[in-house]
Amino acid sequence: METLRNLLLYGGVEPDVYRNCRDELRKENRAKLVFFLSIAIFFLLIAMMICCMVKSLAGGFIPYVGALAGCLALLGVTQSFPNKHMVLAICADGFLAVCYLLGIYLGCFIYADQPATCFHILAVVLPMLFTRPALWNILRTALYEGVFACCVVTFKTPEVAAMDLMDAGLFGLMACVISTYYVRALTDNVVARCKLKVIAETDLNTQIPNRNAYENHMHEYPLRCANSLSCVYVDVNGLHELNNTKGHDAGDVMLKIVAQEMTKIFGRKDTYRIGGDEFVAFVVDTDLRHVREMMQTLEQAVEAHGYSVAVGCATCSAGGIQIKALIKQAETRMYDAKDEHYRSRGIQH
Q1: What range defines the domain where residue 228 resides?
Q2: Which intervals of the chain form a coiled coil (predicted)?
């Protein structure tokens, strides 16, 4: 039962693994939605042109116009709210609904005297477009196959209706089986990519994001802030001396403690180890006074373990943030703090 549950709700993987990859799944689904909407708009325009030129197909013009309007609206909403997960889910369901309903309308009303081949093809293909839980695909397929069957019984001749009902059952079952297998394969692929990404972007010693992650995500921070962005640059004092006197294991312990205290204060996702003894953290939409309090808390927490850090900070208001200049300013202030640390102790470094 547990295996079946995971297959239907989590693409065949463990629930925790699925949740850890949810952002990547949403990102992939959004890219697919924009692509499929664009392709649908293109082909609907072609279909409308053909309907205008071929009189025997003129009956399909109005439903194609309706489907085109729906796809244009969904594409506009998707592009307007790129980071709203609920909007993405609604737009994806809306796109599938447009396609299903177009197939039903064409098969049962416009070409009622012919088998609804278009709908049966859509019924098989549509559940495989997005990486969604298999259970929702099965329920959605059952819903639209049910609507189709009702329309067939009501509006089509008995001879054609019998064939369409048989095909609805056959292709509906086929859609459920194939989409479940396909979604599992897609989910496994995304999970594998997520694992590789975690390995590539995680520092093995401290288990926080490394320089690869820092380089990949630093340019996202100006887009995330509404008021201000602060960069906190941290350098561990005495790491090289500790390595030379007590060995690299002792130095690794020091780095782990600093990383641990930084993640407590700044959060794991916004803290990076970018070099041997250097760390960077970003603070979004927090006033400078509070950021300085966070820096002081970090210094005190590290000192409680018998170590010390040099900390520099730079803050910039939202709008036109030059991220590299902000980081450089924080780094310069960190070096000023480091010089003061050694100077106050009469140490040359």
Answers
A1: 211-344
A2: none
Same domain, 186 and 216: no
**Separation between Cα atoms, residue 215 and residue 51, nearest integer Å:** 52
CA dihedral 71, 35, 18, 211 (to 10 degrees): -130
* Contacts by 168-171, CB closer than 8 A, 24 or more apart: 168/120, 168/123, 169/145, 171/120, 171/123, 171/124
Whole-model pTM: value is 0.74
349 occurs within a structural domain: no
CATH number at residue 322: 3.30.70.270
Instruction: Classify residue 120: in a domain, yes or no.
Output: yes
Instruction: Assess whether 194 and 225 both reside in one domain.
Output: no
- Helices 2-10 and 134-155, packing angle to 10 deg: 70
| DSSP at 21 | T
Which residues touch 64 (CB under 8 Å, ≥6 apart)? 44, 47, 48, 51, 102
Q: Which one of 174, 200, 226 terminates a domain?
A: 200
Phi and psi angles of residue 284, each rounded to the nearest 5 degrees, phi first: -100, 130
Q: Tell me the mean pLDDT per 10 residues along the chain, length 349.
A: 84 88 91 96 95 85 94 95 89 96 92 88 94 93 95 90 93 94 92 89 93 94 92 92 88 94 95 94 94 95 94 91 94 90 64
Q: Are residues 262 and 318 in the same domain?
A: yes
